[in-house]
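User: Structure with phosphoric acid mono(formamide)ester, tokens only please.
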Amino acid sequence: MRRWHRRHLLGMVDLSGEEITQILDVADQFAGVLDRPIRSVPTLRGWTVVNLFFESSTRTRVSFELAEKRLGADTISFSASASSVNKGETLRDTARNIEAMRVDSVVIRHGSVGAPHFLTQHISSAIINAGDGTHEHPTQALLDLMTIRRHFGRIAGLRVSIIGDVLHSRVARSDMWGLKTMGAEVTLCGPATLLPKHTESFPARVTTNLDAALDGADVVYALRIQRERQELGLFPTIREYTRLYGITAERLDRTAPEAVVMHPGPINRGWELSDDVADGPRSLILEQVTYGVAVRMAALYLTAGRDPTSLNLAPR
Ligand code: CP
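Assistant:
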């Protein structure tokens, strides 16, 4: 295994298959740690991580915090709503002030595309993108890839259909790039108003026809519908969206027999997924959340410059 060479984890678009495999392999080892009675290792003792969340989050924020604690790092979480951002402080000044307290890694979620990339030019900490606007959410894609790889034993050759609001979804973009790099066949499906206009460069089939997208799919990946999109007139009503694009048990009859259902959360129950699908035997949604901790441990570990070939997994 080659040594990891990236200082930051900003997106999936430029990660190679070898790099993705390396993260997933390290995450598999950390998943083993998380199954033990003592679920922590001292691997990042003395390392300080700040979680900068300028947008709401449950899964990403909690799993980064858990990942940091499981690795023995010192960790601080910051909510924009309770900070001096409210007094007009800029992102650059906020980050520089936090770094002046001798921070090693910054995990950032921000509503603006490119905010993590911007930080790489102004502070020297390792930066991990926890979601930037409609752009990328790389650790979500990595936990999705880990879930698929552990379930099917492979990613290459699987047919993955990503359904819903592709236009505004950073998860759809990151998953598309990661899945394609790992050899899956990706289909993007949704109402025409919720699909990007220019998809020529996308390594995916794009369709508005849900039945065509579900036909023979191995993975049905439903995206969250954002209510504010309806207010912008991008689809008529939630009821209409659900009638045309909601994933129900009947609709899953078109998929491959062993097909699974995934969703990044939070779910709008009854909108993008019916309850019986969200909670049914094909659902991997809670496995995704579980693997999120191991993937984030791997992302923190590798971007801290630690050697994946000499992982010390002795308990602390
Ligand atoms: N999937 C995801 O990013 O969820 P949160 O917004 O709860 O972090």
